[in-house]
Design goal:
By secondary structure, this protein is mostly helical. It has one helix at residues 2-56. Helices cover 96% and strands 0% of the residues. The chain is elongated, with a radius of gyration of 22 Å.
């Protein structure tokens, strides 16, 4: 019984690490593809923030 519980815990950790690893991999690949747009997105965000601040006053 005790061994079964331990094995289940190990499997849960294994699944967790697998999911996290895959998520990081996907994020890296997508990040690599979208890297050129990151600068644009940051610029747009800053512009929108500034406009929001000016409008808010």
């Amino acid at each position: 019984m005790q061994r079964q519980l331990q094995s289940n815990k190990l499997m849960q950790w294994g699944m967790l690490f697998l999911v996290v690893g895959i998520a990081i991999r996907v994020a890296l690949v997508l990040g690599h593809l979208l890297a050129p747009y990151a600068g644009l997105a940051i610029f747009a965000g800053v512009v929108l923030l500034v406009i929001g601040l000016i409008r808010g006053k």
